[in-house]
Hints:
Layout: E1 19-24, E2 35-39, E3 43-50, H1 53-69, E4 73-80, H2 82-95, E5 101-104, H3 107-112, H4 136-140, E6 143-144, E7 147-148, E8 151-163, H5 164-169, H6 178-188, H7 199-214, H8 229-244, H9 257-260, E9 266-270, H10 278-282, E10 287-289, E11 306-314, H11 321-333, H12 335-341, H13 351-359, H14 365-375, H15 390-404, H16 410-424, H17 432-439
Parallel strand pairs: 3-4, 3-5
Antiparallel strand pairs: 1-2, 5-11, 6-7, 8-9, 8-10, 8-11
Helix pairs in contact: 1-12, 7-8, 8-15, 8-16, 11-12, 12-13, 15-16
Amino acid sequence: MQNGIFFPHKGKAVSAVTFLIAASVMAGCTADKADVTELADPVELTLSWWGNDARHEYTIEAVDEFEDLYPGISVTCNYTEWSGYQTRSNVQMISGTEADVMQINYAWIEQFSPDGNGYYDLNTLGDTLDLSAFGEYELGFGMQNGKLNAIPIAMNVQTPYINKTVYDKYGLDIPSTWEDYFTAAKAMNGEVYPLSMAAKPAFFFIVAYAEQQCGKSFMEHDGSLNFTADDFKIMLDFYCRLINEKVMPQVEYFDRTQLDAGKYAGLIAWLSDANYCDKAIAGGSEFVIADYPAKQESESGEGWYAKPATMYAISKNTAHPQEAAMLLDFLLNSEEMAGLQGVEKGIPLSTKARDHLSENDMLGGMQYSAFEKMEEYDDLPVLSPYFENDDLIDEFRNSCNVALYERGDIDEEAQKLFELFSKVSGNGGDDSADEKDESSRES
């Protein structure tokens, strides 16, 4: 596979004779179990997604099984890695040539469907697409102007992964408050960092702290900024304290291999990145999921945001909405797809897919533990698609270093950040860094 190039996979040849397709498909059912309706013409669909080679292989295999169940439907697959997919999808959405069924980024709903009309309204396909496997909260991520534009496959949240073996060595309890991490840093005395994180997780982490201190959210869902320059100063001060008191290394020096070596006793990363801990676990360390830090234990969860890891949508231009809904239902709810996909895209939100994984002992490990932690908080606020602007996060990191090394006035840096975020934050987030990482994971 070459970067940026789609590789079409043509489905099985379709006979021109009359065939049977399901008019009402229940997730996990095979064709002989479904009610069927006779149709006269074959149907050709397109399906697109991004990911690594493993994802391509199991999705193609799943499509083959779908075509075996419904021999009157042929599916052509287009797939590539993230950056090529993003570029191609932008062109296709503008030109109206997108796939019938497509994997999309959460931020694209706001980008391509601000009025809710950019994708097919899935609520109108409820007779074919089983929405009962999803809760109102999960479906809410795909709602736009009263229309269900997309369905999340799995959810993501920044998660504290703690090496209990290292914490036990220093006689420390698993941290639950912000101050617990500073207490751990004193006990570890520079030998080990209690936490570690890259730039984007650090931004989320610090925003959560500042929200709890300020008693308000960082921004509204539409991207309008709530923080003032004084609030940005709280964020800069907190980053400096984290570094100076050796709670974590600077984000520029974050080295994931140090987690394996036991030099980092904790990690803030996406739920979908739980496999980062695998080597350390294989080496004998026990990892646990800590509470989301708070001023007090009772406040855990405040300032932490959830978002879809990835989503499926149907093109508003599809000529075959019912058949596209059948394919989408198969991808989300069927036993066949659940068995092939496992947790490669995260813990499935579909209760039908998750039940199948549970019945076959395919749920477990750190990722499932992180999912269960997220499930404890069924009211985590929805992440604004404008929140993750990589350029602004880079500016925040630069200002942190100015403040850390006293190369400038911290009040001036806070004012600069306030002005930049006020000007740019409403122009749309870019999830590319997160998605590049997610799509390259080896699961």
